[in-house]
Amino acid sequence: MPLPTTRWMRSRNVTRVALALAVLAAFNASGRADQTKRKTWATEVFRKVQPSVVSISSEKKAASTSRWPFSPEENQRPRVSGMGTGVIIDQRGYILTNQHVVDKVTGVEVHLFDNTVLPARVIQQDPKADVAIIKVEAGKPLTPIAIGTSADLMIGEDVMTIGNAFGYEGTTGTGIIGALSRDVALADDQTYRNLIQTNAPINPGNSGGPLINVDGELIGINVATRSGAQGIGFAMPIDDVKRVAAELLSTRRLGGTWHGLSGVETVLPGTDRRCLVVTEVASGSPAESAGALPGDRLERLANLTISNALDVERALLDTKAGQRQELVVRRGTEEVKLPLELQPLPRAVPDASDQVFRLVGLRATPVRSEYVTPVSDKLKGGLYVHSVSANSPAARAQVQKGDILVGMSVGDSNFETVLPDNVLYILKQAEKKQDPSIRFYFIRRNILHLGELPVATAGTVANSTTR
Q1: Residue 465 predicted with pLDDT over 50
Q2: What percent of the chain has pLDDT over 90?
Q3: Is residue 207 among the annotated active site residues?
Q4: Are β-strands 217-225 and 146-147 bridged in parallel, bridged antiparallel, or unpaired?
Q5: Beta-ladder partners of 326
Q6: Is 130 assigned a catalytic role?
Q7: C-alpha–C-alpha distance, residues 125 and 137, integer Å
Q8: 152 an active-site residue?
Q9: By C-alpha distance, which of 267, 283, 239, 224 is closest to 147?
């Protein structure tokens, strides 16, 4: 027999049902809100780009009062901390940033989005363009950023910045493009041309970081903010940066090799896909030997899809002279595969590099002052060691690839080494003094070191000839 239902019981049941319905409605509303949030362009772009953005921390030595760049005091100067941002442009650990972020620094560390901290070294830099390439050894493939174009930017277009603002890693902000083609003078010796103006947040520490469009593509490198203003920051257009970065990563600069291809970046008709069309094939170049022709559209090189000149140089990173890579081009309606084999740069004039290699056992090329001034601002340059011959005097002195030879001493005489000819001259001085060893100064990991080179080459320098 069912129990009688009182008004109070019925009222309580109705209340429970109403409460359940309210909770369910709130849950559904929350779910819809979460879905809406996940679909906003800013959250989607941040999720896409975050793994490709790094924070950069560095140290710079205070000014020195020492007149001699190889004095022990050079390694004991106080250090000042610095910060900046970078973007990964190749999975092997190549990172693009501003040159002023790494200018004259003594140590660079990169913080990845997963909190991994790695030491970095400066590979190439262009002070005039304020562009630098640094590299980390992550032990795993990194996520390169998608590189877009600045050719079709519009005033009012939505953009995002991500960076190490004031040392707060991963700081993200959105805004719009406020103006294009701005020329800005930040100092007497530094004027930027053709900048993008934006009100997306750019603060100290954002330098070298990305300006990103709604598709998650890199369209600019953040470089400066207007002091005292609100919402006025500037970024370098990515099309300008790509040209500089391609030169900095070129096989010519990094490996002393060449391919002979020149091209122009364009958009395929009827699509938004960008591609590189060959405009010139240098006479006598590896590209000419491979069969490349002006008008060819580059599709792939060494299994990397080619969209711009920077991609060509990325594809050939670590490729040695004589090593063959497959170049795939579109010629009319036909896809053609070409065997591109890099070759050493033709030498316009003889130099002393081969002679130094025969006598000392190291292969080195000159580098400019900005590569060595982080150790001492009195240094004028050095010789970057590309390779060391086994069982050579350089190998016995424990010289390593990546060292920068900056000076040598014979007896009481000290010399800087900015050209291979300087090394030959010093070897001759050692012969004259019949000194069996030469002290040498080199930079490794931004620290100045002293070594001893056992050179038993009496008579060999004078009798050797340069090609």
Answers
A1: no
A2: 49
A3: yes
A4: parallel
A5: 339
A6: yes
A7: 19
A8: no
A9: 239
